[in-house]
Amino acid sequence: MPPDAPPISVLVVDIVGTDQGGGPGSPGPDAARRTAADDAVNRARRQIRLLGGTLDAPGTHAAVGVFGAPVPRVDAAERAVRAALRVAEAVEDLEEEAPGGIAVRAAVRTGAYALADDHDPDGAERLLPSAAVEAAGALHPDGGPGVVVDEATHEATGSLFEYQAVPPAGGQPRTWLARAARGRFGVDLELRPPAPFTGREHEIALLSDIYARVLLEGAPHLVTIVGQAGIGKSRLLAEFWNHLDARPELVYWRQGRCLGGGAGAALWALGEIVKGQSSILESDDAATAAEKLEVAVRNFLDEPERDAVRRRLEPLIGLLPDSPDPVPASENHAAWRRFLEAIAATHPMVLVFEDLHLADSGTLAFVTHLAEEVRGVPILIVATARLELFERDRTWGGAIGNATTITLTPMSGRDIRTLVGSLGGPGDTTPGGLALLEACGGNPLFVEAYLGLMSDLGADPASPGIRPPETLHALMAARVAALDPDHRALLGDAAVVGKVFWPDALAAMGNRSARGVEEGLGELARRELIRPARRSSVEGQQEFAFWHLLLRDAAYESMPSSVRPERHEALVGWAEQLAGDRVADHAELLAHHSLQATLTGSEQAAERARRFLRLAGDRAASLDPARAAALYERAAALHPDGSDEHGALADAAARAAAAGPEP
């Protein structure tokens, strides 16, 4: 190969056995094991092709992929590692669907290789010498599952993936275990829907066409997906992700949630996007978070703008300056946009803002700014919202030329019948089936939740004596009420935490054992009330999420009002300890929980509320001065008039308000 040609990366994939039994090659493997292994090989080959790799003759291996040849690629190593991780993930999904006792052992080796001239991808000819393939396969020291890379691959991709150094064995080259790509996706993308995608073919085609236009023109576009609760916004988003995942180009997908109901935080969704891009966990301390952010900024920006952009990003991850003076929105917007543009200049980017109807005004202003001001890079901005968004802003998106609103209307009777049938529900010729079709109003979540309720109760949904609840809210309340008291209390504590929660928090809030929490969450997941996330934002903790925000609301409302304040107070103690020296990042959320806890008359809760409101104001001053002014004013109201604290907070509110009106 030419001396200046980009390096080539070789991916070698093997299918090995797990603790449940021997591998596919073990003596006398059963039919299920062989079937699982064959499916795993097919999935491996598909992922290699999707990421732009060339399938080479596998020899004794399950699959071999070559990246960077015969067509040179500057990102060959990145594509090879991403393909390896996707293969491992695909086989994990396969094991969950039908356990076969298999796992993936993969290795990536990068270097300069001589190529054969007569390679036929469909034949037995090799693209690379067998020695190159075996050198990659030999990187695994113990033959166990996992994805390992050599030093050249690690040097090329160390800032893009999370790696763990493998202790060197005698005479063996240095290797690293690839854990995951840096960055996280939203939990709604990780759900495994119980029914096939139905009735939204036009909408997914429109989204796909808009993405293709963004890619072709290298220009931004804002898509707002609106509809009533449960109508299928998250499901459409997940299907769109699957569509992008099947495309050959690498795509950065970053997703953030807007929080509301009194538990919001300034620019929280954008903060989640920055943390996702930088692989910052909620449990990371300040030094670790700062280091990860520095790596992310250095990956995409050069001096002299790097430091200026990083300083404007730091408050989004809870790193505040010593003197949190108000920062004008124009300065923040320019820096945040520059960071995202620099990322999108390397790969197309999809930015998702969930539940935009709950967003603070600063988030709405920045989303608008992005759509209007991004230049020369492919960024697709997707927002999901209920119709309440237009009650806040009747002209949302209307003044932006490159904006599209997709309104999800109730599903047709035909599509609802298809959905009911795919879920094993009653036919429309039965009394129960007719009642369900009438009650659901074309809402797919209603159908899924009602059939789940019938399963919980052991009832026949086709029976003429059963009538569905009149509203979706009532249906969610009925699902919660069907739980036994212990599971209902556990779900209620989870609702106090939020849509996303962790077992340690529930153990601390309810004085429960870790085993008791684990068993309880397992039962709630079996009933499809909650679901585990593939990756957690808290180190060492499994992360869970409610299947839908309405279910979280119903669980919270099921708690006796006399119990809620003490649960909020217990949560504050756990969350403050978790946040450590990055507590500013969660200050606004902790202030909300502390204010709820003051209903018990707790002076400790009142002191916490005052402290967290001031800290939340300090955080917001660097992000959205108008919101900071409101937080300082709320903090001042908790101090006696004329006190030094009241005066200092009033002055801080005045300075923040003077920094300029909200954009």
Write the layout of secondary structure elements.
Blueprint: E1 8-17, H1 31-50, E2 54-56, E3 63-67, H2 76-97, E4 102-111, H3 130-137, E5 146-149, H4 151-157, E6 161-165, E7 176-181, H5 201-217, E8 221-226, H6 233-245, E9 252-257, H7 268-278, H8 286-300, H9 305-313, H10 329-344, E10 349-354, H11 361-373, E11 379-385, H12 389-392, E12 403-407, H13 413-422, H14 431-440, H15 444-457, H16 472-481, H17 485-497, E13 500-501, H18 503-510, H19 514-526, E14 530-532, E15 544-546, H20 549-557, H21 564-579, H22 587-597, H23 603-621, H24 625-637, H25 644-658
Parallel strand pairs: 4-5, 8-11, 8-12, 9-10, 10-11
Antiparallel strand pairs: 1-3, 1-4, 2-3, 5-7, 6-7, 13-15, 14-15
Helix pairs in contact: 1-2, 5-6, 7-8, 8-9, 9-10, 14-15, 15-16, 16-20, 17-18, 17-19, 17-20, 18-19, 18-21, 21-22, 22-23, 23-24, 24-25
Explain what this protein looks like in three dimensions:
- With 663 residues, the protein is of the alpha/beta class.
- It folds into four domains: 173 residues, 2-Layer Sandwich (Alpha-Beta Plaits), CATH 3.30.70; 221 residues, Rossmann fold (3-Layer(aba) Sandwich); 56 residues; 99 residues.
- Helix content is 48%, strand content 12%.
- Strands 2-3-1-4-5-7-6 form a seven-stranded mixed beta sheet, with helices on both faces. Strands 9-10-11-8-12 form a five-stranded parallel beta sheet, with helices on both faces.
- A hairpin with a 6-residue loop joins strand 2 and strand 3.
- Helix 9 packs across helix 10, helix 17 crosses helix 19 and helix 22 packs antiparallel against helix 23.
- The chain is globular.
